[in-house]
Amino acid sequence: PTEITCNCTYHILDREYEKDELIPAGIPFANEKVFLLDERDRLVTEPGEEGEICVGGTCLAIGYYRDRERTEQVFVQNPLNDRYHERIYRTGDLGKYDEEGRLIYTSRKDFQIKHMGQRIELGEIEVAAMSVTGVSRACCTYDHKKKKILLYYTGEAGKERVTKVLQQKLPQYMVPGKTTRIAEMPMNKNGKIDRGRLEECAPV
Fold this sequence. Notes:
Blueprint: E1 9-10, E2 27-28, E3 32-37, E4 43-44, E5 51-57, H1 68-74, E6 75-77, E7 87-97, E8 103-108, E9 112-115, E10 118-121, H2 122-130, E11 135-143, E12 148-155, H3 159-169, E13 178-181
Parallel strand pairs: 12-13
Antiparallel strand pairs: 1-2, 3-4, 3-5, 5-7, 6-7, 7-8, 9-10, 11-12
């Protein structure tokens, strides 16, 4: 991201990955520190345990231009270091380590929900949907009022086929309550999917 100008990890692709596999973000570059913090700001080291991705080192930006409040929210003192000043950037991204110690990005903190008593990463549902033959793009949102997971996707695959595959790949509590096929994903000015406009898209 721009805040770390602009790479902090690398991974060498030495094999082919399946569509439903998460490709590792890898390991940090020299002079850069990348680590995970849990909800209590404790260091996460165990494989498979999730935490917020934090970055430190020479790569950090000074902050956001003319936005002190946002800068102070994410460019903070390292909570693991009480001996001297050490700024880190809290990315708002969630990740975990694989068995070989490589970092894997899983989702945004904003995309983590609590549904049916379970903590769910909407990104995991999107990855599962993308593995379905005929699905080109997928995006999940959560209707907090109706307590329902909503899946939107583009491609030629039928809704019944998508739902059947997700029922096979995911626990029941993660299966979307509503699946909608749309012509194309709405995009924002940054080239990312505009999740707030998905409900406006007509089904096809």
